[in-house]
Amino acid sequence: SLQEAFRDPSSPFHIPPGTIGPASPDEPPPELPVAKSLADTAVDPDTRAKMISFGYDEGSLWEQSIVWGHHDAFRHVNNVHYLRFFESGRMQWVIALGNLLGGKERTQAMLAGQGVSLILKSVNVNFRRPVTFPDTLLIGHKPIVSSSRTQFTLASAAYSYTQQAVVADSEGVIVWYDYDKLKKCDPGDDAWRVLRDVMGAEVREGQARGKGL
Fold this sequence. Notes:
By secondary structure, the chain is α+β, with helices and mostly antiparallel strands. The chain has helices spanning 2-7, 45-53, 81-112, 189-198; strands at residues 62-66, 116-127, 135-145, 151-160, 165-178, 183-184, 202-203.
Protein backbone atom coordinates (compact mmCIF):
# COMPACT_ATOMS: atom_id res chain seq x y z
CA SER A 1 0.00 0.00 0.00
CA LEU A 2 1.01 3.65 -0.26
CA GLN A 3 1.35 3.90 3.51
CA GLU A 4 3.71 0.91 3.56
CA ALA A 5 5.80 2.59 0.85
CA PHE A 6 6.04 5.69 3.04
CA ARG A 7 7.35 3.56 5.93
CA ASP A 8 9.79 1.43 3.86
CA PRO A 9 13.31 3.03 3.95
CA SER A 10 14.16 1.42 0.59
CA SER A 11 11.14 2.95 -1.14
CA PRO A 12 11.59 6.18 -3.16
CA PHE A 13 8.42 7.37 -1.44
CA HIS A 14 9.85 6.84 2.07
CA ILE A 15 9.34 9.89 4.31
CA PRO A 16 11.67 9.75 7.33
CA PRO A 17 10.30 11.11 10.63
CA GLY A 18 10.91 14.83 10.97
CA THR A 19 10.86 15.50 7.21
CA ILE A 20 8.26 16.61 4.69
CA GLY A 21 7.12 14.86 1.53
CA PRO A 22 7.81 15.87 -2.09
CA ALA A 23 5.92 18.71 -3.70
CA SER A 24 4.88 16.41 -6.57
CA PRO A 25 3.91 12.72 -6.56
CA ASP A 26 5.60 12.20 -9.96
CA GLU A 27 9.21 12.08 -8.86
CA PRO A 28 10.56 12.43 -5.32
CA PRO A 29 13.53 14.77 -4.88
CA PRO A 30 16.93 13.18 -4.16
CA GLU A 31 16.99 14.67 -0.66
CA LEU A 32 14.03 15.63 1.47
CA PRO A 33 14.44 18.78 3.58
CA VAL A 34 14.50 18.22 7.32
CA ALA A 35 11.94 20.16 9.32
CA LYS A 36 13.52 22.42 11.94
CA SER A 37 12.34 22.32 15.51
CA LEU A 38 12.74 25.00 18.19
CA ALA A 39 15.35 22.77 19.82
CA ASP A 40 17.50 23.10 16.68
CA THR A 41 17.34 26.90 16.68
CA ALA A 42 19.74 28.81 18.92
CA VAL A 43 18.48 32.08 20.37
CA ASP A 44 20.59 35.01 19.16
CA PRO A 45 23.18 35.47 21.96
CA ASP A 46 23.20 39.28 21.84
CA THR A 47 19.43 39.50 22.05
CA ARG A 48 19.39 36.88 24.81
CA ALA A 49 21.91 38.96 26.77
CA LYS A 50 19.77 42.10 26.36
CA MET A 51 16.63 40.39 27.63
CA ILE A 52 18.51 38.96 30.61
CA SER A 53 19.94 42.42 31.35
CA PHE A 54 16.34 43.71 31.39
CA GLY A 55 15.64 41.20 34.18
CA TYR A 56 13.77 38.56 32.17
CA ASP A 57 14.30 34.95 33.24
CA GLU A 58 16.69 33.12 30.92
CA GLY A 59 14.65 29.91 31.13
CA SER A 60 11.55 31.74 29.89
CA LEU A 61 12.97 32.98 26.59
CA TRP A 62 10.81 31.97 23.63
CA GLU A 63 11.39 32.73 19.96
CA GLN A 64 8.25 33.63 18.02
CA SER A 65 8.53 33.70 14.23
CA ILE A 66 6.34 36.23 12.44
CA VAL A 67 4.47 34.87 9.41
CA TRP A 68 2.63 36.71 6.64
CA GLY A 69 -0.71 35.58 8.04
CA HIS A 70 -0.12 37.59 11.22
CA HIS A 71 -0.69 40.78 9.18
CA ASP A 72 -4.00 42.62 9.06
CA ALA A 73 -5.40 45.21 6.63
CA PHE A 74 -3.11 47.85 8.15
CA ARG A 75 -0.07 45.86 6.96
CA HIS A 76 1.39 45.04 10.35
CA VAL A 77 0.98 42.23 12.87
CA ASN A 78 -2.55 42.38 14.23
CA ASN A 79 -2.61 43.29 17.91
CA VAL A 80 -4.62 40.24 18.94
CA HIS A 81 -1.72 37.93 18.03
CA TYR A 82 0.41 39.32 20.84
CA LEU A 83 -1.85 37.64 23.40
CA ARG A 84 -0.95 34.29 21.79
CA PHE A 85 2.72 35.20 21.57
CA PHE A 86 2.83 36.05 25.28
CA GLU A 87 0.79 32.94 26.09
CA SER A 88 3.38 30.71 24.39
CA GLY A 89 6.18 32.47 26.25
CA ARG A 90 4.25 32.21 29.51
CA MET A 91 3.97 28.44 29.13
CA GLN A 92 7.72 28.29 28.48
CA TRP A 93 8.14 30.14 31.78
CA VAL A 94 5.78 27.68 33.53
CA ILE A 95 7.93 24.81 32.22
CA ALA A 96 11.03 26.46 33.70
CA LEU A 97 9.22 26.99 37.01
CA GLY A 98 7.92 23.41 37.10
CA ASN A 99 11.39 22.01 36.52
CA LEU A 100 12.71 24.04 39.45
CA LEU A 101 9.84 22.98 41.72
CA GLY A 102 9.99 19.26 41.06
CA GLY A 103 11.39 18.29 37.70
CA LYS A 104 9.61 16.67 34.77
CA GLU A 105 6.72 15.13 36.73
CA ARG A 106 5.83 18.40 38.43
CA THR A 107 6.08 20.26 35.13
CA GLN A 108 3.72 17.82 33.39
CA ALA A 109 1.23 18.08 36.26
CA MET A 110 1.29 21.87 36.17
CA LEU A 111 0.73 21.95 32.40
CA ALA A 112 -2.12 19.45 32.72
CA GLY A 113 -3.85 21.38 35.51
CA GLN A 114 -3.29 18.72 38.15
CA GLY A 115 -2.69 19.52 41.80
CA VAL A 116 -1.28 22.97 42.58
CA SER A 117 -0.58 24.95 39.43
CA LEU A 118 -1.30 28.40 38.00
CA ILE A 119 -4.23 30.16 36.38
CA LEU A 120 -4.31 33.50 34.55
CA LYS A 121 -6.65 36.02 36.15
CA SER A 122 -6.09 39.04 33.92
CA VAL A 123 -3.67 40.40 31.35
CA ASN A 124 -2.90 43.67 29.59
CA VAL A 125 -0.72 44.45 26.59
CA ASN A 126 1.04 47.67 25.61
CA PHE A 127 1.79 47.96 21.89
CA ARG A 128 5.02 49.90 21.47
CA ARG A 129 5.94 49.52 17.79
CA PRO A 130 4.30 47.95 14.72
CA VAL A 131 5.87 44.68 13.54
CA THR A 132 5.93 43.40 9.98
CA PHE A 133 6.99 40.20 8.22
CA PRO A 134 9.69 38.96 8.15
CA ASP A 135 10.78 39.18 11.78
CA THR A 136 11.33 37.10 14.90
CA LEU A 137 10.37 38.18 18.40
CA LEU A 138 12.11 37.03 21.56
CA ILE A 139 9.59 36.74 24.38
CA GLY A 140 10.76 36.93 27.99
CA HIS A 141 8.98 36.77 31.35
CA LYS A 142 9.82 37.81 34.92
CA PRO A 143 7.76 37.49 38.12
CA ILE A 144 6.88 40.38 40.41
CA VAL A 145 5.81 39.40 43.93
CA SER A 146 4.23 41.21 46.85
CA SER A 147 2.95 40.21 50.28
CA SER A 148 0.15 38.19 48.68
CA ARG A 149 0.42 34.44 49.31
CA THR A 150 -1.95 33.42 46.51
CA GLN A 151 -0.96 35.44 43.46
CA PHE A 152 1.75 37.47 41.74
CA THR A 153 2.32 39.51 38.59
CA LEU A 154 4.11 38.09 35.57
CA ALA A 155 5.70 40.77 33.39
CA SER A 156 6.71 40.04 29.81
CA ALA A 157 8.21 41.74 26.78
CA ALA A 158 8.56 41.03 23.07
CA TYR A 159 11.89 42.10 21.54
CA SER A 160 12.16 42.40 17.75
CA TYR A 161 15.28 41.03 16.09
CA THR A 162 14.72 43.32 13.11
CA GLN A 163 14.09 46.52 15.04
CA GLN A 164 16.40 45.69 17.96
CA ALA A 165 13.81 47.07 20.36
CA VAL A 166 10.93 46.04 22.59
CA VAL A 167 7.80 46.17 20.44
CA ALA A 168 5.24 45.14 23.07
CA ASP A 169 5.10 44.43 26.78
CA SER A 170 2.53 42.91 29.07
CA GLU A 171 1.62 42.22 32.68
CA GLY A 172 -0.63 39.39 33.80
CA VAL A 173 -1.98 38.53 37.23
CA ILE A 174 -1.23 34.88 37.98
CA VAL A 175 -3.08 32.98 40.72
CA TRP A 176 -1.85 29.83 42.45
CA TYR A 177 -4.70 27.38 42.01
CA ASP A 178 -5.41 23.92 43.46
CA TYR A 179 -7.07 22.08 40.56
CA ASP A 180 -8.02 19.16 42.81
CA LYS A 181 -9.90 21.39 45.27
CA LEU A 182 -10.92 23.94 42.61
CA LYS A 183 -9.84 26.99 44.58
CA LYS A 184 -6.93 29.40 44.93
CA CYS A 185 -4.23 28.43 47.37
CA ASP A 186 -0.89 29.23 48.96
CA PRO A 187 1.69 27.01 47.19
CA GLY A 188 4.02 26.97 50.21
CA ASP A 189 7.34 28.51 51.13
CA ASP A 190 9.39 26.46 48.65
CA ALA A 191 7.47 27.84 45.67
CA TRP A 192 7.87 31.42 46.85
CA ARG A 193 11.56 30.82 47.54
CA VAL A 194 12.05 29.60 43.95
CA LEU A 195 10.29 32.69 42.57
CA ARG A 196 12.29 35.09 44.72
CA ASP A 197 15.72 33.51 45.08
CA VAL A 198 16.11 31.36 41.97
CA MET A 199 14.03 33.17 39.35
CA GLY A 200 14.93 36.62 40.69
CA ALA A 201 11.43 37.93 41.26
CA GLU A 202 11.12 41.66 41.81
CA VAL A 203 9.43 42.57 45.09
CA ARG A 204 6.85 45.28 44.63
CA GLU A 205 4.22 45.94 47.26
CA GLY A 206 0.71 46.59 46.02
CA GLN A 207 1.17 44.29 42.99
CA ALA A 208 -1.17 41.48 42.08
CA ARG A 209 -3.92 42.57 44.43
CA GLY A 210 -7.54 42.33 43.46
CA LYS A 211 -11.00 42.19 44.91
CA GLY A 212 -11.52 39.02 46.88
CA LEU A 213 -7.86 37.89 46.52
